[in-house]
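Anyone? Bumping this.
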Amino acid sequence: MESKVIEHYNSENLTDRIRQAIIDAGKDPSDLQIKDLAGIDQLHTGGAKASLDLFDHVSFPEKAIIFDAGCGIGGSSRLLSKQLNCKFIGVDLADEFVNAANFLTRATHLEKQVKFQQGSVLDLPFDTDTFDGVLCQHILMNISDKALAIKEFYRILKPGGKLVLHEITKGESDNIQFPVPWAAQESISFLEPWDSLKDILLNQGFQCLIEKDKSQDAMTWWEKVNAFSKKKSQGVNPLNPGLIFGTNSKFFGKNMAANFRNQSICLIEAVYKKS
Ligand SMILES: C[S@@+](CC[C@H](N)C(=O)[O-])C[C@H]1O[C@@H](n2cnc3c(N)ncnc32)[C@H](O)[C@@H]1O
């Protein structure tokens, strides 16, 4: 199953294509600001603001190290390492994503505090009790064995460490429209209702600190994405989601807004603590 997920996200020569798009956008690919990448490096609902908001009410010790599970091309790690002044280590299944993540991290001069490597969150190459935090942002939808992923997050967290979740969950209706960012069709989409996910977290030993249903905000955000993509017929920014997701990305705004509206999906933000 992991190979199908890799196939969904990997696209040929991604780093070279991103480098060219940066040049086409009139920027220097060896000297970028984080904000230059906002159109491509936040592969989740709500963009950069959602990542920043997630950590608004979570504190970490000085020199904290946070694990970014399924880091994509690393946008959240880069943004949050600056915001929180801490180190991030990210792992992703898709090697093209990991290469792009490391390239963009060098380009934004953050390679000392942010690093990425290829791997699966189901079998992490880190010692027990290593991290102060785990960021789990829009990844569990691609994982059928959620209990194993949660077990790994618990293992690598230090006692008292926090798991920050920003996840799409299954809603009351079964009427999900594809393609969506995590799946072109149902075979690699493993949505669970939040209640089931919560049971897994509590059974693992996590303690709930914060929990919010953000589905309404998420629907509004995707409606705006949809309206924006309909409007711009010319003058498209070369750094746009099509670079990462290909032509499927044209349908994301419409489908995601509809999926939230018809309650086939929900968006949950939560913080859990390892006891
Ligand atoms: C929708 S993207 C989100 C990326 C990133 N978290 C973000 O919000 O920008 C989901 C990511 O999870 C990764 N992924 C899925 N299953 C994984 C697994 N078992 N181990 C590591 N990464 C995984 C995918 O390769 C993809 O990059």
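Late reply, but here is one note on the structure posted above: The radius of gyration is 18 Å.
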